[in-house]
Amino acid sequence: MRGDVMTTIIENQQNAVTTSASEKAWRRRKKRKDLLKEIGGHVLVFVVGLFFLIPFLWMVSTSLKVDQDVFRNPPTWIPRANATVNIDGEDYNLYDVVINGETRQLAYLERSGSDGVFIDPAEPEMEILAPMADATEVLEVNFAWENYPNALNRSTRTGLGVNFMTYFKNSLIISIFAVIGTLLSCAPVAYAFARIKFPGRDGFFLLVLSTMMLPFQVTMIPMYLLFNETLGWGDTFLPLIIPCFFANAYDVFLLRQFFRTIPEEMCDAARVDGASEFAIFSKIVLPLSVPVLATIAVFTFLWAWNDFLGPLLFLTSPQNFTMALGLQDFQGQHIVSWNLLMAASVLFTVPIIIAFFFAQKTFIQGIKLTGSKE
Amino acid sequence: MAESTIEKKSGRKEKAPRSRLEKRNTLLGMLFISPWIIGFIAFTLYPMVMSLFYSFTEYHARRASEWVGLQNYIAMFHDDLYWTSLGNTLYMVVISVPVLLFFSFVCAVLLNLKIKGQSLYRVIYFLPSIVPTVASTLLWLWMLNPQTGMVNSALSVFGIDGPNWFQDPYWSKPALILLGLWGVGGTIIIYLSGLQDVPTALLEAAELDGANWFQRLRHITMPMVSPITLFNLITGVIAMFQYFSQAYVFGAAASTSENALGAPLSSTLFYSVYLYQRGISYLDIGVASAMAWVLFFIILGCTFLLLKVSDKFTYYAG
């Protein structure tokens, strides 16, 4: 088998040397084959890519539609709204109306039975009666940007004065404190595991790693009772923020692995110069670890921003809802405003997308290191 | 380092400074890891002990009032809904996890083709996975809306009468799998980095030997990334046993009354959803705690089993 291939290659080479015409033909064939491969590859990657792209675009498209445009069948990609005409200071919708086989663009006034009352914008005095079946709305491209402020300001629970702006703010507060807490608590713990030799260190570290195995469900109910009943922190942000200030296994592990790559000699030199352990940690090790700290900050933010179960457990009054909880709650009320809901979803996603484009490398690195996005 | 130099130089006096250093290090070490120790005791050890304790007691009027032995476990195993939730979860573990893994592997292979513009494609494939879970779930609820959703509208163009998706007990789980497929970006990236580590020399040698593209994929690439497959499989199974948010949002959308989780007809009542319902909605602390511990052992068992049988299909190059 291998010999055959080798001989054909050698033959090919010989042929190439002897006849330049066949060499050209061979090169053309190869070029054509490569081109076909490239095109085929593009088609495949693109078609599968549509599966990822279309829902995303649909979310943005829906978020920019006016109410009447949302449920159009068949669905349309470009948001449209009724074209209007202003007659005597009032807006009327325009219709294409077929009258005696001739299509005229008329302003719609009101309905009368199965007929519609129209007027010609050119001569507003005369009312024209035509069957609605002969009239079709005139639509024009219209991006309803006002959906975004409307979504933020729209009251999501009647009478409570809450809106998505409230939820957005709550999510931001919780996520920022989660990041601060995680960085402050995980760094020293990881430093001790990486650089301070104390008895029982390996045992403790094993314990840290083993807590990763524990599913949240096991501790969920006692935590719920502890925070809500014993500590009386129910319906506050505290149950979501405070645990972040006490280190978690994932980030401790990640940081410890990174700290170990920092040359020990640097720390020893500082020790000889009489630097305290805390000075070594804060003045040498931390500044060198900015990239990994940034990774942890981004991922903690992502996790806290995304979290649904935590807020569901501890936040009960709508004033304290996070974005995730508020969106679900709004949908759960079966108020069908998909355009506003999608606008709110886009707003919920935007901070993450911005973070992604600013820290693409960090994102990819983090996923490879931790093996998950959450 | 520091310890050994002291030992050599001070000879007989070694005991005193060493123990002083050790004492200092112990103190420092404990000080530095104290956040974790406090957190571990308060938010892991204490809840674990309490959870185990609750699982053997009857919880009434805001306190564990009575030791009932294995009663909670027995009640749990006699509960039809418990088995429904376990069955639903196993459905997802057995079907969804392999489908997700296969799809992300295929995507990673596509993104690893030598064509122009791959960095743009990679962003497109990855972007959905960073959309927050609740937002992506709501988006798919909208896409899969039986009457007005774009999926069924698109199907009707081809003359196909689309299913009722999340409103139909037979289609609610496939709908969730579809939603899962959309967010596989993270797994794709892990696979992609694995694919990039496959030595090109191996692939070229196989090409010279006459192996076609598929044969190279099947007999070289797949064995080379099998440790990554194992990793993705284990993390996928563990995550699927704890599957909650998407199912909760789906169930709430399909139900007509509040607090009716798992709609339609308990088809999205997964283990963690039912545990939440028993423990938090009904405050049935004892049974929910028992459920949590059984879940823990199921996950441990599955992980152990996967690691055991993985020897046969995993290849470690290193």
Describe the structure.
The complex is a heterodimer of chains A (374) and B (318). With 374 residues, chain A is of the alpha+beta class. In chain A, strand 3 and strand 4 (102-112) form a beta hairpin. Chain A has helices at residues 2-18, 20-63, 67-70, 147-153, 164-195, 201-211, 216-230, 238-241, 249-259, 264-272, 277-288, 290-306, 309-314, 323-332, 338-358, 360-370, and strands at 80-82, 84-87, 90-99, 102-112, 115-120, 123-131, 135-137, 139-141, 155-157, 162-163. Chain A is flat, with a radius of gyration of 32 Å. In chain A, the strands form 3 sheets. In chain A, strands 2, 3, 4, 5, 6 and 7 form a 6-stranded antiparallel beta sheet that branches. Residues 1-7 of chain A have low confidence and may be disordered. In chain B, a hairpin with a 2-residue loop joins strand 1 and strand 2. Chain B is mainly α. In chain B, strands 1-2 form a two-stranded antiparallel sheet. Chain B contains 15 helices and 2 strands. Helix content of chain B is 71%, strand content 3%. The model of chain B is unreliable at 1-14 (pLDDT under 50). At the A-B interface, helix 1, helix 2, helix 5, helix 6 and helix 7 of A face helix 2, helix 4, helix 5, helix 6 and helix 7 of B.
